[in-house]
Write a structure and sequence with these properties.
Elements (H helix, E strand, L loop, with lengths): L51 E9 L2 E10 L8 E6 L2 E5 L2 E4 L2 E5 L5 E7 L4 E8 L6 E9 L24 E8 L5 E10 L6 E8 L2 E2 L3 E8 L2 E9 L4 E10 L2 E11 L3 E9 L25 E2 L6 E2 L10 E7 L4 H17 L4 E9 L4 H14 L5 E7 L2 H7 L11 E5 L5 E6 L8 H19 L1
Parallel strand pairs: 21-22, 22-23
Antiparallel strand pairs: 1-2, 1-9, 2-3, 3-4, 5-6, 6-7, 7-8, 8-9, 10-11, 10-18, 11-12, 12-13, 12-14, 14-15, 15-16, 16-17, 17-18, 19-20, 21-24, 24-25
C-alpha cells in the first residue's frame, strides 16, 4: 500500500488512501535493543513486567491510543507471554528478552517491538519501534496495571441507552477523507456489549481489507457523546474517535481516524442496514489478451525458484496469494489459508504465496517470510517477489491490469488460466463478512476442481 504516505488498509497507489506503507513506516536500521539481548532466565519475567492485566497507551499526534494486554509467567515449561487484547482477538507474544533495565517484546511476525522499562511500581514506559521502514519509527508507550474489566477509554458514558439495543451489531454507510480531500467508502460495524452496554467492539470494511478488531466504549466529553474505538496489533495502532451528531442517537457519527505517528483522516457514518461495498472480484483483472500468469520468483529457500509452470502445479487448481509479512490483513488470510491447505491439498489444489517485503535485500526478505512460515505453520510454497509497492507488484506481474491491494488472491484453473481475482480480504474481525469470504473462497475452489 503506497500513496502519499497515507493509511488505508492494504491498498496500493491508484485507488485512494493507504495504510501499511504509510502509517507502518519504521526504521531500516536495526535498533540497538535488538543486538546481543539475552533470553529471560527460567525464573520468568524481566524486572517490572508483572503478571496480570495491563492498560497500555501509545501517544502520537497528541492522541492516546489505548489497548489491554495480559502478562503470564513461565509455567509448565512455557515461556513468559505478553498477550495483546483487541476485542475477541488474542495475540500471544513470547519473544521477550532483557538487557540491563530494558525489556524488548518482539511483536509476532512483524519487524517491530515494544522496548520498555519499569517506571515505578506497577508501571512501564518505553517505545513502540518498527524497524523495517524508510524512516525511523518510534512512538511513546506507557502502561500501568489494571483490572481485567478496565474500560479502554477514560470517562465512560453513564447513559447506557445511548446505542439502544445493538447487541447484534449495527451497520453504517461510512466515508473516509484524507487531508487532500480524497475519499473512499467503507462499511462500519459497531456492536454493543451485552453486559456493560457502554462497551463496544467493531471494525470498518473497505474495498481492500478491513481495520480488524476494534474495541472501546462510549465516552461522555464536554461537547457530547463519543464512540471511541482503538486497536494495537504490533504493526498498527489505530484510534477512531466519532462524535454522535445528536445525544443518544446513533443515526449519524462524525469523527477522526488516527493511525500511528502521522496518519490522519476524517470519517462520517450513517446508520444503514443495507450498506455494502463494490464487488471485490471486479476491482482488477487481466490485461486484454492475457489468460495466464507468467512469473518465476526465488523461493524463500536459497537456490530454488517458483513458477506456475513448474511440474508441481500441472493439472492442479492453484491459488496465488499476493502478500507481505508486514500486512495484518495478509496475516488474517494466511491464518485461514495455512490450515485450509493442509486439509485440502490432497484434492489437487496448491497455493503459491508471493511475498512483497519492505526491503531490497532478498536474503532479508526471505528471512522475514521464513519467520512467518514457521510461526504460522504455512505448508504451501512462498517466494520472494519484490518490494512492497504498487509499482513493483504491478511490474512483477505484468499480465495483470493492476495490483490494488495486499492481499490479493488469484485463482488459476487446471489449465493454468486465471479465472478470478479477488481484491482484499475480510478477516475474522468482520464477523459475518468473514464467513461470507470463506464460503466464496470454498465455492470458487470447488467449482474449479470439478472442471
Amino acid at each position: 500500500m503506497t500513496h502519499a504516505l497515507s493509511f488505508r488498509p492494504l491498498l496500493l497507489a491508484g485507488l485512494g488512501l493507504t495504510l501499511a506503507l504509510g502509517a507502518c513506516q519504521s526504521n531500516t536500521k536495526p535498533d540497538a535493543a535488538r543486538q546481543g539481548v539475552p533470553e529471560p532466565d527460567a525464573s520468568g519475567l524481566p524486572v517490572g513486567l508483572k503478571p496480570g492485566t495491563w492498560r497500555g497507551v501509545l501517544t502520537a499526534q497528541g492522541q492516546e491510543i489505548p489497548f489491554l494486554f495480559d502478562v503470564s509467567t513461565a509455567d509448565n515449561g512455557q515461556k513468559p507471554t505478553v498477550t495483546l487484547r483487541n476485542g475477541e482477538e488474542r495475540l500471544p507474544l513470547d519473544e521477550i528478552s532483557s538487557a540491563g533495565d530494558s525489556t524488548t517484546i518482539r511483536l509476532g511476525v512483524f519487524d517491530a517491538a515494544l522496548v520498555v522499562r519499569a517506571d515505578g511500581d506497577d508501571k512501564l514506559k518505553g517505545t513502540w519501534v518498527k524497524y523495517d521502514g524508510k524512516e525511523p519509527y518510534r512512538v511513546a508507550f506507557a502502561a500501568s496495571r489494571a483490572a481485567d474489566n478496565t474500560d479502554l477509554f477514560v470517562g465512560s458514558a453513564k447513559n447506557t441507552s445511548v446505542f439502544g439495543d445493538l447487541k447484534r451489531g449495527a451497520t453504517f454507510r461510512t466515508e473516509f477523507r484524507d487531508a487532500e480531500g480524497a475519499t473512499y467508502p467503507a462499511v462500519g460495524i459497531i456492536t454493543q456489549d451485552s453486559v456493560n452496554t457502554t462497551r463496544l467492539t467493531g471494525t470498518f470494511l473497505t474495498t481492500t481489507g478491513d481495520y480488524r478488531y476494534l474495541a472501546g466504549n462510549v465516552v461522555t466529553q464536554a461537547d457530547g457523546e463519543h464512540v471511541m474505538l482503538s486497536t494495537f496489533d504490533g504493526s498498527h495502532g489505530f484510534l477512531f474517535d466519532g462524535k454522535l451528531a445528536q445525544p443518544g442517537n446513533i443515526n449519524s457519527i462524525k469523527g477522526d481516524f488516527y493511525s500511528g505517528k502521522k496518519g490522519h483522516e476524517t470519517w462520517t457514518a450513517t446508520l444503514d442496514g443495507n450498506a455494502k461495498l463494490p464487488d471485490a472480484n471486479s476491482l482488477t483483472g487481466m490485461k486484454p489478451g492475457q489468460k495466464k500468469l507468467d512469473f518465476k520468483f526465488p523461493n524463500i529457500f536459497a537456490g530454488g525458484s517458483i513458477s506456475p509452470s513448474d511440474p508441481k502445479y500441472a493439472g492442479k487448481v492453484v491459488v496465488v496469494q499476493i502478500l507481505g509479512s508486514w500486512c495484518p490483513n495478509c496475516m488474517d488470510e494466511t491464518n485461514f489459508l495455512a490450515p485450509w491447505y493442509e486439509k485440502n491439498k490432497s484434492r489437487g489444489v496448491e497455493i503459491i504465496g508471493l511475498g512483497y517485503e519492505r526491503t531490497t535485500d532478498q536474503t532479508l526478505a526471505a528471512q522475514k517470510l521464513l519467520k512467518m512460515k514457521q510461526r504460522m505453520n504455512v505448508g504451501y510454497d512462498l517466494a520472494v517477489a519484490g518490494q512492497a509497492s504498487s509499482a513493483e507488484a504491478s511490474k512483477s506481474l505484468p499480465q495483470l491490469a493492476k495490483v490494488l491491494a495486499f492481499p490479493t488472491t488469484i485463482f488459476l484453473d487446471k489449465k493454468g488460466e486465471v479465472r478470478k481475482i479477488h481484491t482484499g480480504f475480510s478477516g475474522p474481525g468482520t464477523g459475518k463478512y468473514y464467513q461470507q469470504e470463506i464460503a466464496e473462497f470454498n465455492k470458487t475452489v470447488d467449482m474449479l476442481l470439478k472442471e
